[in-house]
Amino acid sequence: MCASVLLRLLCILWCKLANFNIKLANFNMIREPGFFCAIISPNYNKGGFNMKNKASVLIEEEKEVEKEQLDYGIACIVALAIPLVIAAIFAVILERAIEMVLLMACLFPLREHAGGFHFSNRRMCSVVSTLIFILQILAIKYWEVHSYIAIAAFIVASIPIAFFAPVGNKNRNLDLYEKEKYGDRAKTIWLVQTFAFFVLWILNLSRWYIIILVAVMTVGMLVSIGYIQEKIGYRNREENV
After folding, report:
1. CB 223 within 8 A of CB 165
2. Distance between CA 127 and CA 10 in Å, rounded?
3. CA distances from 167 to 117, 137, 163, 221, 222 (A)
4. DSSP 55-120
5. pLDDT of 10-34, one tens digit each?
6. What integer pLDDT is reported at residue 70 of this predicted model?
7. Could you tell me the pLDDT band of residue 193, with boundaries at 50, 70 and 90?
8. Which has more confidence, 16 or 103?
9. How distant, in Å, are the alpha carbons of 31, 144, 208 from that of 100?
10. Closest C-alpha among 85, 77, 73, 74 to residue 130
11. DSSP-assigned states of every residue in the chain
12. Residue 65 in contact with residue 2, Cβ under 8 Å?
């Protein structure tokens, strides 16, 4: 029982974080003349308005929305959990478990708010995510980057985040309000990570600043691809009008 409640809460939370656009039931019936009378008497029927029937339709629609939410949440959790488990095993084998935890702490908040390219197919997204996580861990373990090259790479990777984020995609369209909200959050997270990166760079702690570098490079690349994809899609829509 507790496990099912926890799973339900996780799914709903995931849908909220992923900005899942749920089509809620139509509440125009509130403006119907018999609405307030029907509250007092569910059997009230005036001019063909049957509150009892509309209430049952509304309840059914809410159940469908809830089921859609749960199905989406479970699919997203599974699609993310599989790559994370594989990456965690790989990180333990390479003795980089702590670095992986820190990498995810840097990567997920920035990725969530900056947006960028996503595969429309969850299975493909899961496979590619696994490959990216493994490449990131390999980079943290074996990439002996020169300190000045690290600075240059960080600046180049930061440009799309600073100027283009957030970027929507086919699975997640952003309106002007969301672009402003997520853009501010993405830039705040990026500024915090930039500060941490330069502090670690000054202290010559390459083992740790490379974690932030890898996270920012990954998000910067995905934002760049998503931005190009968004512009091409926008241009195609204009041509079709």
Report:
1. yes
2. 22
3. 8, 26, 10, 12, 9
4. HHHHHHHHHHHHHHHHHHHHHHHHHHHHHHHHHHHHHHHTT-HHHHHHHHHHHHHHHHHHB----S
5. 555 554 544 444 343 343 433 444 4
6. 65
7. very high
8. 103
9. 54, 17, 11
10. 85
11. -HHHHHHHHHHHHHHHHTT----PPP-GGGGSTTHHHHHH-TT-EETTEEHHHHHHHHHHHHHHHHHHHHHHHHHHHHHHHHHHHHHHHHHHHTT-HHHHHHHHHHHHHHHHHHB----SSHHHHHHHHHHHHHHHHHHHHH----HHHHHHHHHHHHHHHHHT-SB-BTTB---HHHHHHHHHHHHHHHHHHHHHHHHHHHTT-HHHHHHHHHHHHHHHHHHHHHHHHHHHHHHHHHHH-
12. no
CA gap 179, 176 in Å, rounded: 5
pTM of the predicted structure, to 2 decimals: 0.69
How far is the C-alpha of 10 from the C-alpha of 233, rounded, in Å?
33
The ranges assigned to domains in the chain are 20-82, 94-241
- Compute the Cα dihedral for 167, 119, 197, 101 and give only its sign: positive
Nearest-angstrom CA–CA distance, 106 and 226: 20
Q: Which of 166, 167, 158 is nearest to 213 (CA)?
A: 158
| Structure token digits, residue 76 | 């997203």
Residues 6+ apart with CB under 8 A from 8: 70
Per residue in 167-176, pLDDT tens? 987 667 777 8
pLDDT, tens only, 123-137: 888 899 999 999 999
Question: What are 218's strand-pairing partners?
Answer: none
